[in-house]
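for the writeup, i need someone to sanity check this before i put it in the appendix. the sequnce is what the collaborator sent (i think, or maybe the updated version? ugh). structure was predicted straight from it, no edits. if anything looks off just tell me and ill rerun, i have time this weekend
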Amino acid sequence: MQKLLLLALVGLGAQLVDGSLGMAYGVTSTTLLLAIGTNPAAASATVHLAEIGTTLVSGFSHWKFGNVDWKVVLKIGVPGAVGAFAGATFLSNLSTETAAPLMAIILLALGLYVFLRFTFQGLPQGHLGKPLRKRFLGPLGLVAGFVDATGGGGWGPVGTPAILASGRLEPRKTIGSIDTSEFLIAIAASLGFIWGLGDENIDYGWVAALLIGGVIAAPIAAWLVRHIPPRVLGAAVGGLIILTNTRSLLRSDWIDASDPVRYTFYAVIYLAWAAALVYSINQYRSHKAEDERIIAEAEAAAETPDEKASTPA
């Protein structure tokens, strides 16, 4: 009973972070399951089964708060489901140990870009509101879905920074669209795991505990995204990406840093992250009217793309 309660609390905390920042539910939950001795495939399967419910509630909540771009959901979600099914089916025969450090470097670079861009430049002008194309979202979804299933988490860490870095979708709609499309990834990955593993290695009590905690947190997280200023949200997401992937890189076989080295890096990141959030809040207060104008123009552009396309140059 104590373990189930702990899992429910982990599910609540993980979904609160995931729903408000667009990542970390799978990583947090899978890490705990691995720590208590669950094998990687069963851990990922447990998390993805729970995510069917949490992503459904999260997607509905984001939709109610106006955080979802449905065109993005479909363009990235369908190829993402294909990648997730493939990753889940072949997880037992695949090793991500070699690829993990390389992926961490790529994500760290994206995280730094997002962190610096939103902290010091605020909302991107010129590209915000322009449509994200299938040739970008399709391959991104395929890779993110595959990484998510094979690594027990990765849909948000791969998808969120890539879309934010494009500068075409404001932070809250990026997070809402990624969270909503994750419902398709959770279903596809779960089917893949059941196909490849059967269900004898899955503890449905653990699935239920994670699900309950996540469902409670989902509406709260969606509300936070709707009301947190984009500058602050972008800085928060960037900081989380940097911290997560720095940790992965320092603990990888490529580096295998000692505890003092790792903790020094973590301390520097936390201090920089806190300073960036304070700076972003102050900048938002100074440029609130300008940010609201940019968002309004972006939403207007997103609602009438066909009319603009048919207008002579």
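Residues 2-303 form one domain. Residues 250 and 257 are 5 Å apart (CA to CA).
thx in advance!!
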